[in-house]
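Class prep. Protein, please:
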Amino acid sequence: MTKIPFFDLHRQFEALRTEILNDLAQVCESQTFILGPKVAELEEQVASFSGAKFGIGTSSGTDAQLLLLMALGIGPGDAVITTPFTFFATASTVVRVGAKPLFVDIDPETLNFSVAKLEEFLTTECVADESGVRTRDGLNVRAVIPVHLFGLCSDLAGLRWLCDQWKLILIEDAAQALGALFPDGDRQVKAGSVGAAGFFSFYPTKNLGAFGDAGLVVTSDPDLAKKLQVMRNHGMDPKYYHEVVGGNFRMDALQAAVLLRKFGHLESWSKRRWSIAQRYQSGLKELAIGLPVEPYHKTCGWRGHIYHQFVIRTSRRDQLRTALNEQGIGTEIYYPLPLHEQPCFQNLGYATGDFPVAEQTAKECVALPIFPELTDDEQALVILRVQEFFAS
């Protein structure tokens, strides 16, 4: 039986083995393991690629978000609005700084943060005056964090307009969306460049993956960039002098070296992911399943999805996954339990039924194999097996 992995890191490494090992050897020769020139070079390249002025390398995507919240002074008595259908860290970092995550439901087509639901929440559950925005129970609403889920940007134009109107900080969770595009008038902007700041994850299975944990914040605000740089290093500036309390959120030079080597391949890998996605779209379009939305912007020819994952929706999700697994085809579920139903968040006061779209989506979503090294023959077999399942 042919086995088709959900994701295979070995294939990418084998193609770059010699170059990466040489890069790692250079770092070992330099003995500069924390921050340093490799990290600075990566910061500059990713910021420029994303359309931002500054990049701040961090120890992980989670730490990038935590660092941002700390630098923005978000803490006890504050609230941050986000989505219940995302990876745990989007909300857990809010809790870790002492603030409260507030959820609004997702859009049923894109699965991203619903702008309409955000506007409804702000107008019915919040009050605004010269001192800011407050919930009816007195929390200070400070920020909105949309998640560009699976590589598709949220409605950044609508979110930016609402955040401007309500004077809220827009933070982009672009952990899954490095290089994703969104239309802004007759031009394209990239994920991470629209809000006050955005952040990325370089977890090994991301479109640009490290050899461990790493992350990065991008911003065009020089004051915020400086504060982030200081706070990621224990708030130390100069050495052993601390005006603020930060943390150990520094990126390793070894991770930066790997990411720099891979960075030159990112665009070609993104094109390959797009091609794989198009074959899935074509091969599965006649089936009674939900396929990823692919918005198209007429003016700039925008096709902005970078397909970190290819996620389909079906009420027969669990049966499909079992059938594919029995035939050696790997799949994954993102995410089986929305955040408002997680046991550790029960104290937030939400209940099952509060966010029906997120809850239904969590029961129906399954991700199919999509990575640049997936062969055409392997993908053809995945499509065939999914077709056979629904034919039966």
Summary: The domain at 9-263 is CATH 3.40.640.10 (Aspartate Aminotransferase; domain 2). The first helix runs from residue 9 to 30. The chain has two domains: 9-263, 266-391.
